[in-house]
Design a protein that fits this description.
- The chain is α+β, with helices and mostly antiparallel strands.
- 56% of the residues lie in helices and 11% in strands.
- The chain contains 18 helices and 14 strands.
């Protein structure tokens, strides 16, 4: 593979082949069952093979397909347990790695972006084998000319064309693609990927975002953001971040490690809008490390939400009214700020019942996030027989809250994978503006 497969016909065939391949394997499974194989064994083999095919295709295509797979990996905690198992390990791979570019291609890009003598003029050493490969670029470890360990992020050739092609094609096959991973609403994920892809391709903008975060969290006791040392349209060189990937904590962390990692992760996302006036908008575990000194190392700043005034105080008002059981106050804020559009009929009490489902973690001094809790919440709001389902259909997300909402959902999904116990109430009350603690009942 010299670069990302770009021809629309070629990429479309591979993407469409995912649901068709699942159907074919299902037919094979049916044949084996007729031949006497146990149903459970056939189903398990079918899901395992489908998961491997999903990783292979999305990983090879990279671009929007890879980004889509990473977004799905964040929300696997919401999947029913009997379906999640075969896909969990495969989706976790999409958080950390994908098939790399050939070495010659990497060298050619670096020569073009950093100059023909890039290896000797910029670096003391450079590792040709990438340490990570993701949706639009891969990362190499190197030693900068001043002796510092650095990460060299190289963008795949053709990433822009591939992103546009993938998003368009994935949108077309989304209805059939429900067979890939049942229980996940793919439409909203695709919409958000499409909206952010142009920014993530702009490495100059990403470097600017990273520098803002690095300044805001310099010398912080809990968070480390690496400085950017050099940049070009297709390459970013920044300080190396050592440590244990959050995905490893998810896979094998002790209870104490899970608690500490979950608390660091959540507090960083809450602090960003106040400290940097930016919200880190790519919450999947591959972007975070637990460093040897206990700090949270943060990577990848291509997707951010610019919040010049910090987190909107509306968020705190909604939390206050919901926790206080103030249906009238909640309804007034939702209608005032466009969450319920004019002419939409829904009672304040129904709105309170719907949002109360989501604020349970704030009713306690500490809360343990888990896959089972997230599945219960998901089942409540997605059951057409329940009032919450109909209320959810009446909600409207104002544009200024769209990305905040996506990041919040994604981060909750990650917290439920980590499975840690966090002082949720204390952290949210400390960092979200607009909360009136005097109006909120004591914790349970």
């Amino acid at each position: 593979m010299s670069d990302i497969p770009r021809r629309s016909l070629s990429r479309t065939a591979r993407l469409v082949g995912l649901p068709l391949g699942h159907a074919g394997r299902a037919a094979v499974g049916l044949g084996r069952r007729v031949g006497g194989a146990p149903a459970e064994a056939v189903a398990a083999e079918l899901q395992a093979r489908t998961a491997e095919r999903l990783f292979a295709v999305l990983g090879e295509l990279k671009g929007g397909a890879m980004k889509f797979g990473q977004a799905l990996s964040v929300m696997e905690a919401a999947m029913p347990e009997e379906l999640a198992g075969p896909y969990r390990a495969t989706l976790t791979k999409l958080q950390e790695a994908a098939p790399p570019m050939p070495v010659a291609r990497v060298h050619a890009i670096l020569a073009d972006q950093l100059g023909p003598r890039w290896r000797t003029s910029k670096f003391e050493s450079f590792e040709d084998r990438p340490v990570a490969a993701a949706s639009i670029g891969q990362v190499h470890r190197a030693v900068w000319r001043d002796g510092r360990d650095v990460a060299v992020k190289v963008q795949y050739p053709g990433a822009g064309a591939a992103l546009l092609s993938d998003i368009n094609q994935l949108s077309r096959v989304a209805r059939v693609a429900g067979a890939w991973i049942p229980g996940i609403a793919m439409g909203p994920i695709l919409d958000e990927v499409r909206a952010r892809m142009s920014e993530e391709l702009d490495y100059s903008l990403e470097a600017k975002n990273q520098r803002v975060f690095a300044r805001a969290f310099r010398d912080d006791e809990d968070v480390f953001v690496p400085d950017v040392l050099a940049q070009s349209p297709q390459v970013i060189v920044s300080e190396w971040v050592s440590g244990r990937p959050l995905s490893e904590v998810i896979a094998s962390g002790t209870p104490t490690e899970r608690d500490e990692a979950a608390t660091l992760y959540l507090e960083f996302l809450l602090r960003g809008p106040n400290r940097a006036r930016l919200l880190h908008a790519d919450p999947h575990p591959g972007n975070f490390r637990i460093m040897p000194d206990g700090r949270l190392g943060v990577l990848d700043f291509g997707a951010v939400n610019r919040l010049p005034d910090g987190m909107p105080s509306t968020t705190g008002e909604l939390i206050t009214h919901t926790l206080a059981g103030d249906a009238a106050g909640l309804g007034a804020v939702l209608r005032r700020d466009g969450f319920i559009r004019p002419g939409i009929e829904v009672s304040d009490e129904a709105l309170l019942g719907y949002l109360s489902t989501f604020v349970e973690p704030l009713e306690h001094e500490e809360f343990t996030f888990s896959r089972s809790w997230l599945r219960a919440v998901s089942a409540t709001i997605q059951d057409p027989r329940r009032e919450e389902f109909m209320v959810g259909l009446r909600f409207n997300l104002p544009p200024e809250f769209m990305l905040i909402h996506r990041v919040w959902l994604g981060s909750i999904g990650v917290l439920c994978q980590v499975g840690g116990t966090v002082p949720m109430r204390e952290l949210v009350f400390a960092h979200v503006p607009g909360i009136d603690e005097s109006a909120i009942p004591p914790a349970r």
